[in-house]
User: Fold these one by one.
Assistant:
Number 1:
Amino acid sequence: MEKIELANQEALRRMLTADPVLIDVLPAGEVLTGLEERMILHAGPPIEWDRMCGPMRGAIAGIAVFEGWARDLEDGERLAAAGELMFHPNHDFGAVGPMTGMTTLRQPVMVVENRTTGNRSYCTINEGLGKVMRFGGNDEEVLDRLRWLRDVLGPAMGAALRQSDGIALKVLTARGLTMGDEMHQRNVACSGLLLRALAPELARVATDTAALAESLAFIAGNDQFYLNVAMAMGKAIMDPVRDIEGSTIVTAMSRNGTDFGIRVSGTGDRWFTAPVEMPEGLYFPGYGAEDANPDMGDSTIVETIGLGGFAMAAAPAVAGFVGAGNASEAALFTRDMGEITVGENPEWTIPSLDYQGVPAGIDVRLVVESGIAPTINTGIAHKEPGRGQVGAGVVKAPLACFDAALVGIAERLGVA
Amino acid sequence: MQTGDVSVTEDNKQKPDLLDAPLNVVNVGLEGFARELESNGVPTVHVDWSPPARGDAKLADLLSKLSE
């Protein structure tokens, strides 16, 4: 159908011409329109308390304490169960969040502006690995780290970025791809490159050298620091791709630990959902598949723009880390994703594939026709609240989401 | 009946005997068949193919309408 082909060409053009720049860090309450007291933004499509998984509940209880809405975790759970907290998807507020994806008023969020189209997207600062809120952690150690991000690192990064020209993310990401990152489960190179760009700016605005040293050490000690930047970048790239009449390109993939949801350009902000799958992967010592929570997080925005599992060939070390096979098999994942995308990104290339661009623009029709589901690299949370990360792995997007989306598009175009 | 028998015999004379000649196989679909033949020394080219939309007729029909 010519209308679809033209619409998808326009969708790909918007993706490839995006110019995402990290420009600021500010409290979420100052930049997210409509965010209110007792409102919690979460990862994935809409969900209510009674259907939430363990780590999501744990994070909600914890963030309610952090925000001062609850006396303790028990009180936080009580408020949630009593309907005294409001839950909304990050995606409805221009934001994204990894794993549980908690975004609330007083948390600092990184601001990424797409300078081609002027839209802005937001994501909280990555907390590090292990027992952290995004994996459902909620004890005092977790909350203290969030307070430090709020009081020290967030304001410092904001001040540093505001007096700079911002950090252009497209080029930085391109360099990371050539250095072995895929931007979902491996962000070692990009985190280092980002620190290299940020450090002088942080130093310029610092008034407390001890706090500066602490900030630099925190970023340097977190190999996944860039993940949240890449996510905000992904959202900033994909938001202008929404609402192209007739387009079958996926604009968001997201999971809340219970449901997997996708949005498609030609059907606007409608979610097409199906039950989430269980990741297959490797576990930290002492943990196994019996401890794992199903798939979770907005981080699949990274795959939506052609990175993560789609760029596995760029990061053979990840294939081993997430249990996806030998390093030499990493290229097969990227080749498979080429079967379900309408183009390649010539600015994000993979050296081991003779500088082929990452697969870009997931076409719902190609997914349904081929039966090839998008491959996602992901962290694995413990299924119980308060426990944190237990491993990393690979998971497939449920094909039922794409089947439903195909029907939705056909109805929209009057051919169902 | 007799004519038919003669015809069959003539056809058989014109065709090479499949089971006597060396096999060169193109296998379409289920990979297990290709693996089995290869393990018995039969040169096999496997074509990775499956019915559109995993054989779901309704989805295949919609795909056709959205792709034509």
Number 2:
Amino acid sequence: MIRITAGFLPLLDASILIAAHEKGFAEEQGIDLKLVREMSWANIRDRVSVGQFDVAHMLAPLPIAQNLGLSPLAVEMIAPFALGLGGNAITVSNAVYTALQSGNAAINGDAKLAGLCFRQLVEQRKVSGLPLLTLAVVHSFSAHAYELRYWLAASGVNPQSDVSITIVPPGLMADALALGAIDGFCVGEPWNSVAVAMGAGHVLTTKSSIWRSSPEKVLGLTRQWAEHNPELLDQLLLALHRSAVWCANAENVDELAGILTRSLYLDVPLEHLYHGLHGEVGHRAEGNAFLQFYHNAANFPWQSHALWFYTQMVRWHHLDLSLEGASRAKATYRPDIYRRALQSAGIALPGASSKVEGALLSPTHVPAQGGQLVLGPDGFFDGVAFDPDALQSYIEASPFYDALHKF
Amino acid sequence: MSGSNLTILIIDESPERALLIEAALQEAGHRHIRIVSILNGLVRQIEDIAPDVIIMDLGNPNRDFLEHMFRLSKAIQKPVAMFVDQSSEQAMLDAIEAGVSAYVVDGLKRERIKAILDLAIMRFRAFEKLRQERDDALQALDERKIIDRAKGIIMRQRKLDEAEAYELLRKAAMTQGRRIGQIADAIVQSDSILQEKPS
């Protein structure tokens, strides 16, 4: 048995790593998978960078940001496996929710309607001279930060000046909302359901309503570790693949919830875990579209996902657009390693490494190696598609993009 | 000392540890040291303090927030790097193992920062050792009490004196390969179950 140490944060999308250990998928591959719960993404990043963790549950944009020099550390990271799609929601305080409902339409969890109501509230508050609403995300370089900004901007709210965006750790979100320190947040499950159960707020919309089948967490590791341990990495990805299949099976939901609730892992009461696992967060009954562990090629590291995060980093002025930056962002995601590790798994592997995000309106057969592969629907709530071959025009057409911004 | 004109900010939820680090840095000639333990209004505090070096506990759950603040802060306009030297993996590993994260405002001389970081690492380790000793002492105290209670139970049930009761415990621990405290704990627990009145 070879020991692999993996860091994680207590979130539903750590399930694939946790089940890989608990259900013996890692052991089958000769891996003694040691899981260590961490309290911040910064600690995850640091411990992976110095080699205390071999791999970790990571925010998808985190390794990209690090490779682009946006992190205080300069160790090159890669992401060869996605730990699922979706899994987040936007929750607002009771006061904001009540104010939103006083508009003309009933909130139903739909991102477009929620955005319309939110914009009206922001405009009313501006007229009345009320302070900006404060919304929290878990990290500057997180899918939460980018999907929240995307949703706001596409709804006509300028995330740079119409609201204030701050950072709160996932486990403290519900308390911060209850105490009135923030007016809303975008976070992964189970922390929306925990806030709702506390009576602190209501779910407004979900990540899957903003962008269906969208990237969230990845398995992150240093390029150096991957190059020194190629066979071990392949075995680990195979174990994670089998774990993902297990997690995605509806018959295993109760057992998975029973594992996650333990103090070692999420340490959250069972009933709060079921909302996310059943895909019933807030008003919407999304089923397995809310958090996808396996289907829809949920574990494939699409380079178009990496490039989308890159466009948002440029859009919100974390960095300037450059060919070099784009290729570095793209190369952080490693579909080549995914294919190498899983070629023997007997599953259909996507033939392409990038796709136009938002092109599939319904489930569609796509070219694949080794079997049939159905993808979609995917796409953003505003109907705008993202073509990874046209970064500049995509960024320039984004609402509230300020091309003249000075760093 | 040459380091005395640097402004060092210590962010720590443990005031004891912060004072320990401050004292060490003062001894080394640093006169501009500030300690922050409450994060409210931190942005303005950082602007006021304009630190060159920030030292923080890895156990702080708000590290992601603090890094975000560093990025936003006008006082820290230059890029913030962690640790002195990206190529010195051992220094990074030492710091992280000791539970320290240090942020250095770019452009500072490496050797000056190295000395500060080394001091912080030493003090973090010393503090951890103190805490471990205190925990051990508390555990030993608890164990002492449990052993006394187990001795009382044995004396009562077997009509033995204290030395004989302790000898019995010691032998049981030897044959089972466990600590006396563990054996005593088992005796106290089973006794409390047997003492419970049927309801």
